[in-house]
């Protein structure tokens, strides 16, 4: 694929720049909060109890779930997406045979970078990290019939149970989704 001089492919497009997914560091707090803020501003249904730009409230919400791993996707030196893993059993069904579960949580991709390599690489890296940490399955809680719910279903997640959110998020209907890891932990060629 060739581009005229001075042009480039869309970020993450074939031939375009690819994201670098890495562990978050202390210096990533502000840029990560900015990604959440941009997502809140772009979609009134995403974290409707938070206001875009209210970093203190977004940080308070973020800290409600202590994370085992927090990943950053950078594109051209800018934080374009984030994703977390939490060591928390899902509740009903967690005692079923198959090994330990981890919660997939805190996924956010800046609206300018959705639907491409940033989302794909964050999700893939998070699944690989969970498997490396010994998990056999992931679970997540999301808003029923939301874009994230529909996206997860299209990527192999399955409905598992109805659920509820706690605290300010209780204004939304929740659903639990589950996904096995072992057959999906390796990168495709």
What does this structure look like?
The chain has helices spanning 29-42, 55-62, 117-132, 147-154; strands at 20-23, 69-75, 78-86, 101-109, 137-143, 158-164, 173-180. With 189 residues, it is of the alpha+beta class. Strands 1-2-3-4-5-7-6 form a 7-stranded mixed sheet.
Write the layout of secondary structure elements.
Layout: E1 20-23, H1 29-42, H2 55-62, E2 69-75, E3 78-86, E4 101-109, H3 117-132, E5 137-143, H4 147-154, E6 158-164, E7 173-180
Keywords for this structure?
single chain; 189 residues; alpha+beta; 7-stranded mixed β-sheet; 4 helices; globular; disordered C terminus
Strand order of the largest sheet: 1-2-3-4-5-7-6
User: What's the main sheet like?
Assistant: 7 strands, mixed
Mean pLDDT: 81
> How big is the Rg?
17 Å
- List segments where confidence is low: pLDDT < 50 over at least 5 consecutive residues: 1-12, 184-189
Query: What amount of the residues lies in strands?
Result: 25-35%
Distance between the termini: 20 Å
Structural class: alpha+beta
Shape estimate: globular
Q: Count the helices. How many?
A: 4
N-to-C series of helices and strands: EHHEEEHEHEE
The beta-strand count equals 7
Helix content: 10-25%
